[in-house]
Amino acid sequence: MQGRGLPFRVATLLTGLLECLGFAGVLFGWTSLVFVFKKQHYFEELCEPDAGSLGNATGLDGCPRWKRLPWTDCRAQDEQFSLIFTLASFMNNFMTFPMGYIFDRFKTTVARLIAIFLYTSATLTIAFTSTDTAVLLFLAMPMLAVGGILFLITNLQIGNLFGKHRSTIITMYNGAFDSSSAVFLIIKLLYDRASIKASFIFISVCSAWHVGRTLLLMPRGHIPYPLPADYRYGLCSEDSPQEEDKKAVGSKKLELQSEEFLSPKKETPGQQQAPSSFWSHAFSQRFAWHVVWLSVIQLWHYLFIGTLNSLLNNLASKDSALVSTYTNAFAVTQFFGVLCAPWNGLLMDRLKHKYQEEAKKTGAPAEAAALRSAVPSLALTSLLCLGFAVCASVPVLPLQYATFILQRGLPHACVPLGALREAVWTRDGPVGCCVSAAVSPLHPHQGPPPGRPPIRELDVGAADSADVHPPLPSGPGVPAEGKPR
Fold first, then answer.
1. Which secondary structure element, helix H or strand E, spans residue 380, and what is its range?
2. Tens digit of each residue's pLDDT (9 = 90 or more) over 189-205
3. Among 8, 240, 413, 456, which residue's beta carbon has the most beta carbons within 10 A?
4. Who's near 278: CB < 8 A, 6+ residues apart?
5. Cα–Cα distance between 313 and 196 in angstroms, integer?
6. Number of structural domains found in the chain
7. pTM, whole model, 2 decimals?
8. Does residue 18 lie within any of the structural domains?
9. What is the C-alpha separation between 341 and 344, in angstroms, rounded?
């Protein structure tokens, strides 16, 4: 089996899309899963019954009274669920850098086998948890998150197979990652017909499909960029070190011919810039400001998802049917991420091609075209953040439909980061998400007063500062930081 043919590459693309869509980012459907866990009385012993009840006493039927009483205050229960999501979302971001290193060091097959092990262990743990062992969710959800993000990391390289459409495919995979949160909505809708145990056992069995795809449709090593003309991957190709060296040589030969690299034809050796190192990117001022901006956005994102069930219960006066309706609406808007995200990549691809043509005429460096193509994407993300912050701060239940729609733009704030680290693809992007994970534990776990949106627990004034991204180059020949032209 060879990876030369277009049908083989399309099969890799589509199965990767299915993998991201069905498995990678299910964590962000947490709100739907919390609804099911509450139906199963997880952590319900932490709820406080109304005055005059006998608390945790046992009734005549032998059933603990805390399973039968009407509740007035379940903030402690909500705090447990929020804490689980906080831990899982922290690991989802923090582990991107070490997982990126594992992917670099041990390559695709090893990284994917680790992902499959973590993911399967997590789904089996969730399948066999019960009311008495609900604490195991503190272990299972972080493992599920890390396994999922590793699926995404290993799939993003597939964009290298499609040349000038690379950014579009990467953003499409990011969108599929977020859309996979709809899997928990499906589990919620099936809850009356199939137990949560059966649903997660089925997901665990799907690990056999992940293993098969790893062996048949994925490379042993990495997919190079630019792609050599004779590049092969898959079951019958051998990614030996010698062949990978040949691929690297082939990549260098193609570099001058690639539209993605901007080496002017008449450039003299003295004008050529040495490639930037990983650490020069990681410690650059531009990258640091982007991480600050990204951190605030992700703090909003995780705060909103982690406390949404509590927010809806407060705004709906604990009407279970109404909470279920809004939970379903949120999950549906999450699903449309796979349709919305590619537009971000299309915009960047088109602008990058345009700026590349200008750079060839003016002799500008490659960095300028990549950075200029990211400006509209960053601006659009910032505007979405501002609208989201305003809507989420208003305690009006119907307005949350608009909040759900605007929230769609937040997970893709990491996408323009690609323009900031063109030299070292695999690790510099994950290190941004890794550093930004430090803000995940900052959001409050204590439930807000009834009727008050949790997002207001943050200083709303931070919305203004977060929506001002550090300026990126606007001219075709902007020099690197600290270096005069």
1. helix 366-392
2. 999 788 899 999 999 99
3. 413
4. 423, 424, 427, 428
5. 22
6. 1
7. 0.73
8. yes
9. 6
